[in-house]
Structure formats: C-alpha cells, structure tokens
Design brief:
Helix 1 packs across helix 10 (230-244). This protein has an eight-stranded mixed sheet with strand order 3-4-2-5-1-6-7-8, with helices on both faces. By secondary structure, it is an alpha/beta fold. The protein is globular, with a radius of gyration of 18 Å. It has helices at 13-26, 44-47, 54-60, 70-73, 96-109, 150-167, 186-194, 207-215, 219-225, 230-244, 257-263; strands at residues 2-7, 31-36, 75-76, 82-85, 118-123, 141-146, 173-179, 199-202. The N and C termini lie far apart (43 Å). It binds adenosine-5'-diphosphate and magnesium ion (MG). Magnesium ion binds next to helix 1.
Length: 267
Amino acid sequence: MKVAVYGKGGIGKSTTSCNISIALARRGRKVLQIGCDPKHDSTFTLTGFLIPTIIDTLQVKDYHYEDVWPEDVIYRGYGGVDCVEAGGPPAGAGCGGYVVGETVKLLKELNAFYEYDIILFDVLGDVVCGGFAAPLNYADYCIIITDNGFDALFAANRIAASVREKSHTHPLRLAGLVGNRTSGRDLIDKYVEACPMPVLEVLPLVEDIRVSRVKGKTLFEMAEYQPNLNYVCDFYLNIADQILSEPEGVVPREIPDRELFSLLSDF
Ligand code: ADP
Ligand code: MG
C-alpha cells in the first residue's frame, strides 16, 4: 500500500510521517518512508542525521542508475523503518515532480519499490503545480495534516482538489485529515462539514514532540526511557491502524476559494 502525506509547510508532516511509519512497523509491516521535500529532513528523526538524497547520489554517479546500490540511497532508521530522501531540484530551476519520478524509477531498478508492505511519501503541500502532486500518481491513499487555522485548511482544500483531479485517472482516495498541534477543532469541523472527509485523529501541541525534532528521535524512541510519552505514541498507532484497515476514504469535492474564505471567517 502507498500513502502520501500532504500538508502546509511546517504543519508537522515529517514528524507525523516518521511516527506513523514506526507505528506501522510496530504492527509488523515492512515500511519505507520517502521524503519528497527539498528540505530533505523527512527522515531525520528516524535516522538521527540528514541522509544523502537520491538526487545528490545520482549526480555523484553521473546519472548512471546501474552504478547505484540500494545501500547508497536506502538507510535503515529506528524501528526497522527504511528511509529515502528524494531531495529537491536546484532552487528556482527544475521540477519537484521530476525528482519524485526519478526516485521511483531508481527504486524500481533496485527492485525496492515492490518490496515493502507500505511506502509512505512525505510531501510538501503548498500545491501550486502538477509537480507537487506527482506522488499522488503512485498513492492508494492521501492523508492531509492540518491545524485548526485558516492557512492550513486552505492548503488542505487545494490538496483535496488535487486528489479529486488525480482520482479520475488513478485509484486514489483521501483517507482523511489529521489535526496537529491543535487543541480546538471548530474550524476543522466546519471544513469537514462543508467538504466531507474523515478526521483520523487530532493531536494537541505536545512540548515533547517539538523536542523530538531537536533530539533527532521519534516519540517511540523517546518513550523507551520516558514511558509517560506512550499516550502520544497511541495517537500515531491509532492512525496506523486506520490505514491498515484499508478505509473507504473519500474522493473529496473541494470548496471554491471564496466560499472557503467566508466559511472560515467570523464576519
Ligand atoms: P513539516 O514536515 O510539515 O514541514 P515538521 O514535521 O518538520 O513539519 O514540524 C515542524 C516543527 O513542528 C518541528 O519542530 C516539530 O517537532 C514540531 N511539531 C510537529 N507536531 C507537533 C506537535 N503536535 N506538538 C508540538 N510540536 C510539533
Ligand atoms: Mg517536512
């Protein structure tokens, strides 16, 4: 199964992805997480360092795919989760979609693409062109990370539109939203009432999640010596279990921008 995690920049995609990946591995699945953001820190809390990107490696090998070995690009992270960073095109030039395409092509050549029970793509979500939507070509499910604010829900709505568009040609469903770093959910609820989709989980702001980024560790690793954090791991296990149940999900019908502005405004 292939899952693409989308959401506004800084909303917590990589944090959530890493912890969901471990949760899936805890459920006995063989998991690969692919970072598809030029920020290339998707897998940082899984491996504890910034692993070389596919694009860097291909450049070093002069784009000779046959000279690239799995160990050049696939790094084993915490909990047995395998990690790949696609990397980004040169700033201001090239296309993120091309990078994702090259990554999938290389993983196929290495016979790695079909070896996993679950591949999780961690993708940036300010979808402005087809390139950013490229991982949806490979995904069975999309998950959107949002908070209870206007900007993240605005981004979520654009991602929903991309899912609808791709679902014409691919068997893709939106599994639902994950609320992150938020205690209130009034705007999330308003949005899903207007644009029906499941809310898989809502995580509060947790100081230890912020700290996990600085420590380069996932919550599951931290919980080994801070058992009081097991309740946070349960949020991620709950999301993982919902994915594994292969939910029906939805093909969303996004809200026109102007309607979204008035829906999420108080005036
Ligand atoms: P993205 O991948 O969407 O750009 P990150 O996963 O890198 O975002 O998260 C950005 C920052 O927010 C990180 O420092 C992370 O530790 C922090 N963070 C994410 N989720 C939470 C949360 N629920 N509570 C507190 N901090 C969080
Ligand atoms: Mg990220």
